[in-house]
Amino acid sequence: MMQHYQGAIPICRKIGVPDLFIIFTCNPKWKEISEALAHIQIQRPEDRPDIVARVFKIKLKHLMEVLRKGKHFGKVKGEFQKRGLPHAHILLFLDKKDKPETPSDINRIVTAEIPDKEKDPDGYNAVVNYMLHGPCGLLKDGSPCMRNGRRDDGRIANKNGIDLDNTWVVPHNRDLIVMFNAHINVEGKNRVTAILEKDPNMNEDTGEEEVLIDEINNYLDCRYISGAEACWRIFDFDIQFRDPSVERLPYHLEGEHRVIYRDTHDVEDVLDNPSSNITKFLEWFEANKKYPEARELTYADFPSEFVWDKQRKEWRPRQSGNTVALGLLSDDNEWHARLQEASTYNTGDLLRQMFVIMLIFCKVTDPKKLWEKNWSLLAEVIEHRERKRRRNLHLELTEDQLKNLTLIDMEELMKRNGRTLAEFPSMPIPEKEKEYAYKNKLIDEEIDYDKEKLRTQHISLKNGLNSAQREIFDDVSQSIERGNGGLFFVYGSDGTGKTYLWNTIITGLRARSKVVLAVASSGIASLLLPGGRTAHSRFKIPISLEDNSTCDVSHGTQLAELICKAEIIILDEAPMIHIHAFEALERTVKDLMNPSKDKTK
Question: For 378-401, what is the mean pLDDT?
């Protein structure tokens, strides 16, 4: 979206702001669609999004030809609305002599009135069928929501049994809607501010109406791809189109590439450095020119067959061995370079986040060396922050103090991800001041619930259990109370109340500040569990599973402490997970619960 925006701005800068905004909507009753479906038994347009998409593409092409062959020229941008039928949003730039400058010019292009039924029957029928919208809702006083600003000429049209006047007409161009037999909304420059809210709920305590805003649920309710849009993308039709086109220039000029250096370095020395003119990436292209076999490898796989010659500054075929080449992936030069590059446009806060991500996900070979070489970049704004916090504008921190505060910040970021710097032996550990004392955030999250509300929910859920659910609930509760442990497999088809049972168990334990790990095999299923997550996410189950796989959970980490603290693990849709995942989780939990046990057994 941002790239399309950046591509559209130069057109506005060159030509000016758009003059007309046109919305072209597919009509499922088009003759072409009806004739195609006439040969297919018991199918409607929504059953054949492929036919709808193809016909709309033809109609859209015809519309653009009509617009361009007239007096108009300029840039057109089309996109889909999130609806069952495809839309095209078109911004039209007109030639200077055709731009609407006066009200009469606007009226020549756009109208928002019901035509005379006797004088213009075609226009009247088109407006009533496609451009006349009935009441879309009621105001608090019971009156209908109306579109104001229309001339009242006394004309009335009946739609769906309701008499409507000009206030209900959507701005349009009469010739276009008659020609294309569809909804084509045409407007000049305009602006609207809108807000979407759910119906208010009645607060039982106060008796007042309140609107509950849940951005996550709103997103889930609205984000989808319709069948027509899916077919449109499968057919590889244009989603965005611009005319004139915008050419995106390359990041660097021909024969040049980025060189990063400190302001204390001498420019001539930087330019004379061979590494400034030759890089492994650029030489990779040269190797592809020289060796045909190199063209079969990606850049990531290149070191398996080629070796970087430090003396000659070139790639040459590997003579023996099959390890990854030194200098590309087996050392940390890539991470050093990324931090140096990012420091030119990012603050210390973002750099510290980047460093933590590298430690957690990027298999850094020597974390200590990466820290020592880049700590000054990571410590940026730390001193400024401390001056504000301590209200001392002249505060000067020593190097050790800066390092320690930077490490404290990064330890906090590690804790948020359930990790710690202690997992990397070579990394220095911050001296924890009292104000920076850390707790296990993962456990805090699992017990940070409204206990009173959970107790009320639990009582209500428990009273609603049927006999089969109650038997399972009692067995599980007794096992937890007695500390017997155990494995319970609950089977039942859809609608038998498994999720209801899980929620009863979960609310009862969490109401007593017990840790419950509620997980599921898929992200969708996890949404049905309060505080639910996927099993792979919670327990770090490896993607590639083998007979002897284990989860990536180390002793002493916050996640390990959380798992040991859990009273129960509820895994929904368990049969959907591979057996090796269960075995990996079992090995990991046994190891965490029995740290002194021989891990080889």
Answer: 82
Q: Please, which residues bridge with residue 209 across strands?
A: 202
Helix (H) or strand (E) holding 476: helix 467-482
In the structure encoding, which two tokens stand for residue 394, read together? Answer: 């002249």
* CA 558 – CA 414 distance, rounded (Å): 10
Residue 361: how many CB atoms within 10 A of its CB?
9
End-to-end alpha carbon distance in the chain = 54
Q: Whole-angstrom Cα distance, residue 518 to residue 528?
A: 10
DSSP state of 453: H
Residue 526's Cα: distance from chain center in Å?
18
Nearest to 77 by CA among 264, 241, 263: 241
* Largest separation between any pair of C-alpha atoms in the chain: 95
- pTM attached to this predicted model: 0.41
The string of DSSP letters for 347-378 reads -HHHHHHHHHHHHHHS--S-HHHHHHHHHHHH
Q: Which residues contact 145 (CB under 8 A, 6 or more apart)?
A: 135, 136, 137, 138, 139
Q: Sign (positive/negative) of CA torsion 154, 158, 163, 169?
A: negative
User: How many Å apart are CA 548 and CA 600, to the nearest integer?
Assistant: 11
User: Which two three-digit tokens encode residue 376?
Assistant: 């000054």
Would you give the distance in Å from CA 152 to the centre of its chain? 47
CB 80 within 8 Å of CB 238: no
Find, among 128, 122, 131, 111, the residue nearest to 179 by Cα.
122
Summarize pLDDT for 194-213 with one digit per residue, the tens.
455 556 666 666 666 666 66
Asked if 145 and 136 count as a contact pair (C-beta separation under 8 A), the reply is yes
- The contacts of residue 479 (CB under 8 Å, 6+ apart) are 485, 486, 488
Could you give the CA distance from residue 544 to residue 17 in angstroms, rounded to a whole number?
53
Structure tokens at 210: 């309140």
Q: What is the DSSP letter of 296?
A: G
Give the confidence band of 458 by pLDDT, cuts at 50, 70, 90: very high
What is the CA 21 to chain-centroid distance, rounded? 29
Burial (0-12, 13-18, 19+ Cβ within 10 Å), 406: buried
The amino acid occupying position 279 is T
What whole-number distance in Å separates Cα of residue 348 and Cα of residue 354?
A: 10
Phi and psi (nearest 5°) for 130?
Answer: -125, -25
